[in-house]
Amino acid sequence: GFTSVTAPGIATQGDWILSTVGTVPYARTTTDAAIAFEFVGTNLFVQALTSPDGGRLLAWIDPPAGDESLAPDVVVDLNDLQAEDTTIQLASGLPAARHRLVLSAGNDEARGQRISISGFIVTRHPTPEPVARLAALVFLALATAALTERALASVNAIREREQQRPRRQSSGHPRVFSR
Hints:
Layout: E1 2-4, E2 11-13, E3 17-21, E4 24-29, E5 34-41, E6 43-50, E7 56-61, E8 74-77, E9 84-91, E10 97-106, E11 115-123, H1 129-164
Antiparallel strand pairs: 1-11, 2-5, 3-4, 4-11, 5-10, 6-9, 6-11, 7-8, 7-10
C-alpha cells in the first residue's frame, strides 16, 4: 500500500518542508535531511519528483543501529531534464518481515539540488507456489487426522452405549411368546 510522507509512522530528521501540489503532499529538502519508517513487505518503492535540480537519494534497508559508516544499499539520482513524478524501486525480494528504511538526501547545496518525496509504496509477493502446495498438503493431513480421531471417538461411544443396553435372551425366537 501507499504511505504518505505525512503519515504518523514517518520520522523525519533535518529540514523538511511540507508542501502540496494539487492534492498530493510532498516533503522537500535542500539539505542532507533524512526520513525513516518501518514497513512489512517484500518490495519497496519511493514516489519522488525527478527534476533538473534533483539531488540524490541514499537508502539503507535494515541498517544496524548506530553504524553511520555503512554504505547505502541504494543510491538514486533524481536529476532529469523534465520534472515528473516517478516511482522508483528501492528494494525487491526482501523477506516477508518487518523492515526499517532510512532515506537520506544527498544534495549538493552549492548546485541548488533538492529532493521532493510524496510517499512510499510497499508490496508483498504472493506466497511461492511450492510453499502454497506444501501448506495445502499439511492442512489436508491435519484435517484427515482430525476427522479420523472424531470418527474413532464416535465408534467408541456407540460401542459403550451398546454394552450398557440390556441384552435379550439368545434362546428362542424373539417373537415367540409363551402361552
